[in-house]
Amino acid sequence: MLATQQVLPPSASVTADGNLSIGGCDLVALAEEFGTPLVIYDEHHLRATARAYVAAYSELGIDADVIYASKAYFGLGVLRILREEGLSIDVASGGELHAALTAGFAPEQIYLHGNNKSPHEILEAIQAGVGVIVVDGFDEISTIARAAAAHDRIQKVLIRVTPGVDPATHAAIATGQVDSKFGFSLAGDAQRGVAAIRDSAHLSLIGIHAHLGSQLFDLSIFGPTAEVLADFAREVGADDIDVVDLGGGLGVAYTRDHAPPTIEEFAQAQADALRSAFASRGLTVPRLLCEPGRSMVGRAGVTIYRVGGIKRIPGVRTYLSVDGGMSDLLRPMLYGAVYEPIVANRANDAASQTYRVVGKHCESGDILVAEAQLPEVQIGDVLCLPATGAYGVSMASNYNGQPRPAVVCVADGRARLITRRETYDDILGRDLV
Ligand SMILES: Cc1ncc(COP(=O)(O)O)c(C=O)c1O
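# pyridoxal-5'-phosphate complex -> structure
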């Protein structure tokens, strides 16, 4: 049992050589075979997490649907696995819609989100026949209605509202508060939005959506949220409010100090909140939708890097440079996210030094881990950052001309390349000279 087992997929173990292994695959061998930086997903853990979500709601006896928020990671290899596990999918752009369709999701399993869906994206979604569009603002109501009319369809929609609940999370990933670019405020806009949707012969309102924020540890916020939504449903007339989508948000452990709620606790908190708020107002309890992203794929993924430089500044600190950085893992720079790295080729060695783990990019802020406790590190060591499966490579860029990493899926001692490493020609391939 590793000290940091809870931030790694449950299959993580240490080989007789002292190397970290996941899904029966030695990470040092994977670094040799596929190069670094390399993102590795544990297939069994992805499947187990999807099943745990579906089971958690069904065991509560509530009518629910689990919708994977593909912004967390939309690589086709992982999308296919989650589709096979029977999940629906949330897409927030034309690109994610294309990925979902390519991965084989049935159009009716797709929910289109976005606070600024372009008319073209709306058209693509309607042409594809997506199940539900989540309406985020007044401007898009007529665009969706026109596109639906042009295709002789009645498009199902949810209205996204900001319930005015401030989640205890970083401001950059909080969305449920009134001061948000997402959704309709309940102080009049949402009511007018409902009226405008109901006025259209080509839109069918099926319910309400509210996503509070991400990396949530305090589930008590679903209580007041559901109360606000039930009041809103009663105010606008609950006849067509058959569905309430309480969004995603369940946090994951990035370090051994993090203790997020379980999937079962998350499902229970959402289900209890919804049942109590609607039943206590004499309203039929709607179907519950949830949209987990981070907690679906975060712990299943790790990233490995090769250490290429060590710079000791006496009395100041020691910098440890790896061959990736902000181009494959932006979260530490975006909102101070923390990670707890492991030297994969000496996974059993006790920490003896403090390092600042930095990337290779031309920014002093390219810091992956500000204070990492590690054994003595040498050039050529393989460094593993656990819990990078969500909002990691999905935010990758080509800054400094860095090719985006390869992605492999591991299970039962076999590694399958699911995304090849980008080439220099891939990076320049769109440039017209
Ligand atoms: C509308 C919506 N649903 C679901 C999610 C997924 O949240 P999480 O990854 O925290 O589960 C997000 C994340 O930003 C979101 O904006």
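# post-check
The mean pLDDT is 96.
Residues 107 and 130 are 4 Å apart (CA to CA).
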